[in-house]
């Protein structure tokens, strides 16, 4: 089978992990954690970023920092992964699901506008496939109404809105380094703190609610409990692994982009399927390649037939407002989110994909569409 994805391995990881083991610095917030965070500061301009154990825990930190609680409403796209929502639900917020755009699976600013009430405190945006949401429109809505924007940029490492890295436009942003992402640390994530007012508190929460950072810097002679917090940062082993990937990230994203472009060119103008529609402001990172089939039957047929050819294809996501957990809780009609749920199909895309594999997938999709 040609898999849907394969994690990228640079070959440098083992040396850094071995170094971490030999230095006996195994817990978190050490040399490799700092190296990774400095990388994002120097290359992406992220003033403060904190490595986390996952994108999910980075979003849990974002929920704590936004001081969300009962009575507050959070607008979030229905077409996303559960981790965009759970952290806010865990804090007692009311979740309000928004619809997707017609042209992309991203949250539709017009849908946001219709859902805002006096209780709206946070808007979560998800840059699906690393394709930027319409951030000019969303930031304007949020600024006009004094609402916090949090970017779930789980897919979007290295992708930009015009020339600005995704994750750095809202007050807070998050990345994922899960093995399905362009680069990985096994499990891992990043919290990007853009609004300075959150910086100090973010550092406390990250250190389990203590001022250990000031202690390590020699600013205080003991560290104390100042806030709530949790064990949010990864071990140095994961950070060392990520460090073994970071210096290769441009090479990885460029190779993925080459593959992505061939797909987009070769599969355009086929009746019944559409290639991704990339807005002008979106400089994406080729995180995944998807097609939109004209209906659910065709999408399912494509997945089944590709499987017979030895090709893994998948759908992703299931709209959350229709999930077993949510569907009895009430929501408005979200036509586009359902459309994407029914019609999207993802094709294999990974760094080590060969030209032969790419050709086979393209030829198979063409053959099935002809049939
Ligand atoms: C949009 C989105 N947010 C959050 C996550 C969670 O990421 P992680 O597995 O790093 O916690 C995912 C996972 O793929 C995701 O797709």
Describe the protein in words.
This protein is 37% helix and 15% strand. The protein has 13 helices and 13 strands. It folds into two domains: 13-246, Aspartate Aminotransferase, domain 2 (3-Layer(aba) Sandwich); 249-370, Alpha-Beta Complex (Aspartate Aminotransferase, domain 1), CATH 3.90.1150.10. The model has no long low-confidence stretch (mean pLDDT 97). It has helices at 13-23, 31-44, 55-65, 86-90, 109-115, 135-145, 199-206, 212-216, 236-246, 249-266, 296-308, 335-343, 355-370, and strands at residues 48-52, 73-77, 94-98, 120-126, 148-152, 160-161, 164-165, 172-176, 189-193, 273-274, 282-283, 289-293, 344-347. It has 371 residues and is α/β, with parallel strands linked by helices. Helix 1 (13-23) runs antiparallel to helix 9 and helix 3 (55-65) crosses helix 7 (199-206). Pyridoxal-5'-phosphate binds next to helix 3. Pyridoxal-5'-phosphate is lined by residues 54-56, 80-81, 83-84, 126, 152, 154, 176, 178, 189.
List the helices and strands and how they pair.
Elements: H1 13-23, H2 31-44, E1 48-52, H3 55-65, E2 73-77, H4 86-90, E3 94-98, H5 109-115, E4 120-126, H6 135-145, E5 148-152, E6 160-161, E7 164-165, E8 172-176, E9 189-193, H7 199-206, H8 212-216, H9 236-246, H10 249-266, E10 273-274, E11 282-283, E12 289-293, H11 296-308, H12 335-343, E13 344-347, H13 355-370
Parallel strand pairs: 2-3, 2-4, 4-5, 5-8
Antiparallel strand pairs: 1-9, 6-7, 6-11, 8-9, 10-12, 12-13
Helix pairs in contact: 1-9, 2-9, 3-7
The protein binds pyridoxal-5'-phosphate.
Pyridoxal-5'-phosphate binds next to helix 3.
């Amino acid at each position: 089978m040609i898999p849907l994805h394969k994690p990228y391995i640079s070959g440098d990881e083992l040396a850094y992990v071995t170094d971490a083991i030999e230095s006996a610095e195994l817990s978190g917030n050490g040399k490799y954690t700092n190296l990774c965070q400095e990388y994002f500061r120097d290359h992406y301009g992220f003033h403060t970023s904190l490595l986390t154990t996952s994108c999910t825990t980075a979003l849990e930190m974002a929920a704590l920092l936004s001081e969300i609680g009962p009575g507050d409403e959070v607008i979030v796209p229905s077409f996303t992964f559960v981790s965009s929502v759970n952290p806010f639900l865990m804090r007692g917020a009311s979740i309000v699901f928004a619809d997707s755009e017609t042209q992309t699976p991203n949250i539709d600013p017009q849908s946001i506008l219709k859902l805002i009430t006096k209780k709206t405190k946070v808007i979560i945006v998800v840059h699906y496939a690393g394709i930027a949401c319409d951030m000019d429109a969303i930031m304007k809505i949020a600024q006009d109404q004094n609402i916090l924007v949090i970017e779930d940029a789980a897919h979007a490492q290295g992708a930009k809105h015009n020339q600005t890295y995704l994750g750095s436009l809202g007050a807070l942003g998050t990345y994922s380094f899960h093995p399905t992402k362009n680069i990985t640390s096994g499990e891992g994530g990043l919290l990007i703190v853009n609004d300075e007012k959150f910086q100090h508190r973010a550092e406390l929460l990250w250190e389990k609610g203590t001022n250990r950072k000031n202690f390590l810097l020699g600013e205080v002679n003991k560290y104390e409990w100042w806030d709530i917090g949790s064990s949010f940062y990864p071990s140095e082993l994961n950070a060392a692994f990520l460090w073994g990937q970071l210096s290769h990230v441009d090479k990885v994203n460029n190779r993925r982009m080459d593959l992505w472009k061939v797909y987009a060119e070769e599969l355009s103008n086929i009746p019944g399927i559409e290639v991704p529609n990339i807005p002008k402001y979106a400089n994406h990172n080729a995180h995944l390649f998807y097609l939109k089939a004209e209906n659910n039957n065709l999408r399912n047929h494509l997945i089944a037939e590709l499987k017979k050819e030895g090709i893994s294809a998948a759908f992703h996501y299931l709209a959350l407002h229709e999930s077993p957990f949510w569907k009895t809780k009430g929501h408005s009609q979200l036509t586009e989110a359902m459309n994407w749920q029914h019609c999207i199909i993802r094709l294999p895309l990974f760094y080590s994909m060969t030209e032969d594999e790419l050709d086979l997938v393209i030829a198979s999709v063409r053959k099935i569409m002809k049939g």
